[in-house]
C-alpha cells in the first residue's frame, strides 16, 4: 500500500446523493461502501454539527486510509470493518433505525490502482481480485481449478461474449501453463477474441468484471443487502444505490419495485451529467436509484 495522498477517488453523483438522502443536521446515515470516505465526508460536512454516519468497509488497506482521512470527525463517524451484508445486524445491535443508507458499488480508484490485487487489466499483478482478505478464493484459484462448466457459468453470468468457447479455451490454456498474473489472462483473452469483434478493452473489462463478481460474491451480497436494509430505515428513510453495470442495476430495479416496504422515487435511474463524466470518466456508467421506506408496510 502506498500513501493516502496518492489516491484520489472522486465521489460519484455527490450532489445528487446529498439531495436524495436529504442530508441535514440531526440525522443518522449508513454508508455501506465507505471507500476513501468521499460521500461520508460530504454527509458529515452537510449535516454538521450533529449528523452521524455508520460506515462499512471490508478492504483492510482502504479502512486504514479512510480512518486517517476522517479522524477529525470524532464520534460522528463510526467505522465498522465488515461486509455490508451485516448492516441490519449491526444497526439492530446499536438499537437504531436510520434516515438513509447509501451503497456505492463498484471499484474505488484505490482498489484499481493501488491495491496490487489484480483488478486492472492494465497492470501485471497476481490474479487475486479479493476486495477483502476474509474471502477464500482468489481469481487465480478459480481460473486454474474450477471446472469448465463452472467457468462457463461465471462468464455467462457476466454476459461475456462466446462464454462457452472461452471457458473451453481457458481450460486448454491452463493445462499447458497455469494462470499466474493478470497479463497471463490478458494475453489469453486477446488470443481468443482475435480479431476482436468488440473493442478489445471492453472484452477485457467484461472478463475481469465477471471474475471479480464471482470472487467477491458481489451479486449475493447485493441481494442480501436489498432484502434486509429496508428493515432498518425510519419511515420515509431513503435507500440510495449507485451501480456500475447492468447486472447490478437490474437487481436493484427489481428489488425496489417488488418490495412492499418501499416506494420507488426514481422511475428512471439518475445518471451523471456530461460535465461530471468529463471531469471523472469513472462515473460514465453510474446509475443511481432511490427508494423510500413507506410509513407502514404496503401503504
Ligand atoms: C466505489 S467504492 C466507494 C467509494 C466511496 N463512496 C467514496 O466516495 O470514497 C466501493 C467501496 O466499497 C467497498 N465494498 C465493496 N463491497 C463491499 C461489501 N460487500 N462490504 C463492505 N465494503 C464493500 C470496496 O472495498 C470499496 O472500497
Overview of the molecule:
The structure is a single chain. The protein is an alpha/beta fold. The protein folds into two domains: 4-110 and 218-293, Vaccinia Virus protein VP39 (Rossmann fold), CATH 3.40.50.150; 136-215, Putative methyltransferase TM0872, insert domain (DNA polymerase, domain 1), CATH 1.10.150. The protein is built from 13 helices and seven strands. The chain has helices at 14-20, 38-46, 60-69, 87-94, 109-114, 139-145, 148-157, 163-176, 182-192, 200-215, 218-228, 246-258, 274-279, and strands spanning 28-31, 52-56, 77-80, 98-104, 233-243, 262-264, 287-293. A seven-stranded mixed β-sheet has the order 3-2-1-4-5-7-6, with helices on both faces. Helix 3 (60-69) links the parallel strand 2 and strand 3. Helix 11 (218-228) runs parallel beside helix 12 (246-258). The radius of gyration is 20 Å and the shape is globular. It starts with 13 loop residues before the first helix and ends in a 6-residue tail after the last strand. The mean pLDDT is 95. Bound molecules: S-adenosylmethionine. Residues 9, 11, 33, 35-39, 56-59, 62, 83-84, 104, 106, 108, 111, 131, 221 line the site of S-adenosylmethionine (SAM). The site of S-adenosylmethionine (SAM) has 21 residues, from helix 2.
